[in-house]
Amino acid sequence: MDQVEKKIGYWPVVAIGIGGMVGGGIFAVLGLSVQMTHGAAPLAFLAAGLVAMATAYAYTRLSVTFPGQGGTVVFLDQAFGAGLFTGTANVLLWISYIVMLSLYAYAFGSYGAAMFPEGFRSLGKHILISVAVLGVTGLNFLNVETIGRAETWIVAAKIGILLFFTGVGAWTIDVSRIAAGSWPSATSILAGAMIIFLAYEGFELIANTAADVRDPNRTLPRAYYSAVGFVILLYVLVAAVTVGNLPVDRIVAAKDYALAEAAKPFLGSFGYLLITVAALLSTLSAINATLYGAARLSYTIAKDGELPEILERKLWNRPVEGLLITSGATLLVANCFDLSSISTMGSTGFLLIFAAVNAANVHLAEKTGSRRWISIAGVLLCLGALYSLLHYTWQHSPSHIWVLAAMLFLAFAVEGAYRLWRRGNLLLEHFR
Question: TM spans, by residue (predicted)?
Fold first, then answer.
């Protein structure tokens, strides 16, 4: 009876998926999306959401078949074995989480610094970025449970504020600003959709709950599709209200804190402050949840033999080395790269990972009872979206391509070097 009572139902699982997606992403990338897509920003969020929905099918079938707390790592291992490809993909997933953390920290610094005097904003942003990352790292050592209990209330608050923002702002939309005449080229729209794809990646957190879900065969599919569908609708509405109430040049000028600026025309200074508070709470809670999850991910990958054993060590039930490495890397990325670079890295990483998960479901279709063609379509959508993002990036910001190449090489090099080191140690042990 006690075991049954511990199982969670449909609504808590949906809340986990929505909370994972509506973290700090929408606050960080909205202005960047509008800069690239202008009046087509709602369409861009819809396009990115459809790619996420296609991938949700693979996650649904894999979660039902392989319930546990490993999520993506387990799915790739089940499909392709614990080889160099899987190890590289899992390390890339860890790096992508570090990039997400950097995005949240960057957004926290940007929204907070917007309240400072003009001359202090640049320095203030970097100070706030560092304080947020170091502060949450310290809290993970002290009393993460207290913050964990507050997560539910923070998620409810930010969803409520965004719904209030869209509900009030919808009445004052200037339709001409989102009409087809205000759209750029199809290439720009598609690239703009994919650079903000990382705003949807959080639905994969549902996979980590699969072992604790009541009636998973029925609950998990409904939860995945409901969470992704709700967030698509929310993002499209937020984008429409933003572009419909504020000229594109003003959104671009306030790119790093665009959502707060967009609340001014119809909510005044109160709206600006409300969205700023929501952004600060949202990004801080997202840093906490993602930092904890990324440190746990490094622990899981190390347990699978794909990262050094030192990352398996725990102190006070926390994966200490993984936590510190993740925090240090986040400080470096968030303080050294701009919003566009961070978003491009994050979206590239997750598009590759989601393509691999779709491919895993194609490979395991007989075990998962899947329609193979849906996940084949998911692979093609992810790779096509990735191509459009890389093509646009090469044309407009070619230096970012080298950053992406370095990120992918790092994932391969870390995994390859560790495997060579481990093989060398095994040979030494053999000849002793």
Answer: 12-34, 40-59, 80-106, 126-143, 155-173, 185-203, 224-246, 266-294, 340-361, 373-394, 400-421
